[in-house]
Amino acid sequence: MDIAFAGLTFAADDPLLWTALDSSSLTGTAGPRTDLFIDPATGETTLNAPRLLTPAPAGDFQLWARVSVEFAATFDAGALLLWGGDDAWVKLAFEYSPQGTGMVVTVVTRGRSDDANGYTVEAPFVWLRLARVAGAYACHASLDGTHWDFIRHLSLDTAAASIGFEVQSPSGEGCRATFTDITFSVTTLADLRDGT
Fold first, then answer.
1. Are 169 and 73 a contacting pair, CB within 8 Å?
2. d(CA 24, CA 5)
3. Per-residue pLDDT tens for 7-49?
């Protein structure tokens, strides 16, 4: 099953886990112990989190959405995903921290994953944005959908990449994330750090 948003068609790895709510909203449901992560110390690999992806268009772009997650267990999350293959990908997530709060988190995987915390979010939702700018990628988050906080700037050495959504429950019994106000634009971010 394919789901269309903002002029793009997304394909699900498991269609039963994704539901379109309207033309700019969807939910994704993860089962128990699902994740995208390659342990940086051991190399232990988990790649069973549900994904909804479309090929990334050529050139600069921006993909953003308002993300809310029905947190139940540590590391439950909904994320925007840049997928270059089983050992090359980026997730920008709204994740349930070990301290019991929502948090903006990025994981960049180049062979093995790194894991970097952004900031905690007291609200039950956060806006996330993934953008390509001049061949590199930028991650931003927003508490109001207007002012964007710079989270990360990175490269991902892969010839082809897909973009989309992911939901996970690494330590729990399952998780549901809702993505609303999904927007895609083939525009270029002029400044990564000025809040726009």
1. yes
2. 6
3. 788 998 888 899 999 989 999 999 999 999 999 999 999 999 9
Length of the chain equals 196
CA gap 74, 169 in Å, rounded: 8
**Residue 151 token pair:** 């989270």
For the entire predicted model, the pTM comes to 0.96
Q: Say how far apart CA 56 and CA 186 lie, in whole Å.
A: 11
Three-class secondary structure assignment of the chain: CEEEECCEEEEECCHHHEEEEECCEEEEEECCCECEEECCCCCCEEECCCEEEEECCCCCEEEEEEEEECCCCCCCEEEEEEECCCCEEEEEEEEECCCCCEEEEEEEEECEEEEEEEEEECCCEEEEEEEEECCEEEEEEECCCCCCEEEEEECCCCCCCEEEEEEEECCCCCEEEEEEEEEEECCCCCCCCCCC
Identify the structural domains of the chain with CATH numbers, from first to last: 2-185 (2.60.120.200)
- Output the CA torsion 127→133→138→144 (10° steps): -20
- The predicted-structure confidence for 146-160, as pLDDT tens digits, reads as follows 999 999 999 998 767
